[in-house]
Design goal:
Elements (H helix, E strand, L loop, with lengths): L2 H22 L5 H22 L14 H25 L2 H7 L3 H11 L7 H22 L11 H24 L4 H22 L7 H29 L1 H8 L2 H13 L5 H18 L4 E6 L2 E7 L18 E7 L2 E6 L12
Antiparallel strand pairs: 1-4, 2-3
Helix pairs in contact: 1-4, 1-9, 1-10, 1-11, 2-3, 2-8, 2-9, 3-7, 3-8, 4-11, 5-6, 5-7, 5-10, 6-12, 8-9, 9-10
Length: about 350
């Protein structure tokens, strides 16, 4: 499965989880539901890891990964979901799903300004279109122009925007961890974040939900937060954070579509205009092709790989069948081909 398919599959699973989580919210507080979704994701991944057939050896987590892992747990697994669920309480499922498109421009902005990725002017224009779409949705609802039946107050919009900012940092930190075993990374993230939110909920005296809500949280957590996050980690490895965000930006449209039959939301002029800006931005991002002559500096690292144009090295002893993982060195090389800012293509642009 290539990075594009992985990114789109992750987006579909996460997109469906937003309106489904909103269905569960009346029977559960945002803090408790956030904890349950991530804890059930961790349980599902642990079961899969125990029963899955033999897979290619992935690079294990290392001591140097502790700091980015802490950021991923706190921002992506802890704070982000609580902000999202709090926001979904205050807006319609359709508008809430569409506002989650803000994750893409936040991810790209951080990838370029803080994490050294490159985006051309066209991709920056696409990000701006998505932000304009979010502004239309928030402004139109606040002015009472929405036809969804639930006005989006500023707190709800701000919470959803805050969640997307948290996930923007999370995506970029996960990209730094994407050469590690994705199941190991996601298990640490979901278990720590889920347990932390549930402990905090108990300390605050929150009430745990009924069995039917627990069952729903188990399904949504396993698929929308467990499997989705593993696929997303693999897409980050293949595409880089900024390009992965372009494909993941399709998630909110599925969530918005599901909100119509599931929650009874009805799109109007505001929702249509906001969605149009966001669709334009996603289409522009999807049409990108980045191809130029570039130089790879010498590099040593450890990750699962095949012996392709970027992996021409000898082995000391039997490294096992491909794909396989082991520490290896890349010598300097200059060539030209279409590429994305993955682990092998983080170079300067003129």
């Amino acid at each position: 499965m290539n990075g594009v398919v992985q990114g789109l599959s992750a987006a579909a699973l996460f997109g469906a989880s937003a309106p489904l989580a909103k269905v569960l919210l009346p029977g559960c507080s945002p803090l408790v539901l956030a904890g349950l979704l991530y804890l059930f994701a961790a349980i599902a991944l642990s079961i899969y890891a125990a029963v899955r057939p033999v897979a290619p050896r992935e690079a294990p987590l290392q001591r140097a990964d502790v700091l980015p892992l802490l950021g991923v747990v706190f921002l992506g697994g802890g704070l982000g979901p609580v902000l999202m669920l709090t926001g979904l309480e205050r807006v319609s499922g359709l508008v809430g799903s569409l506002l989650l498109n803000l994750e893409a421009p936040f991810t790209m902005l951080l990838a370029v300004t803080l994490f050294g990725e490159h985006l051309a002017r066209r991709e920056a224009t696409a990000a701006l279109a998505i932000v304009l779409g979010a502004a239309v949705l928030g402004g139109g609802d606040a002015a009472g122009l929405s036809s969804t039946g639930l006005t989006a107050d500023p707190v709800g919009v701000a919470c959803l925007a805050g969640a997307c900012l948290c996930w923007g940092f999370d995506n970029n930190l996960c990209q730094r961890l994407s050469l590690r075993d994705p199941i190991a990374v996601v298990r640490v993230k979901t278990a720590a974040a889920g347990a932390g939110n549930l402990v905090l909920a108990m300390m605050l005296g929150e009430v745990f939900p009924a069995p039917e809500v627990l069952a729903g949280a188990a399904v949504v957590g396993a698929l929308g937060y467990g499997l989705s996050l593993v696929l997303d980690m693999q897409a980050l490895r293949a595409l880089g954070a900024a390009r992965e965000a372009a494909y993941f930006a399709t998630a909110p449209f599925l969530g918005a579509a599901l909100s119509i039959p599931l929650l009874g939301d009805r799109p109007g002029l505001v929702e249509g205009a906001g969605a149009a800006f966001m669709v334009l931005g996603v289409v522009i991002l999807r049409r990108e092709r980045h191809d130029h002559s570039h130089t790879h500096e010498p590099l040593e690292h450890d990750h699962v790989h095949m012996h392709d144009a970027h992996h021409q090295h000898a082995h000391d002893g039997d490294a096992g069948p491909e794909p396989h993982a082991h520490p290896h060195r890349h010598e300097a090389v200059t060539h030209a081909h279409p590429h994305v800012p993955d682990a092998h293509h983080r170079h300067r642009h003129g």
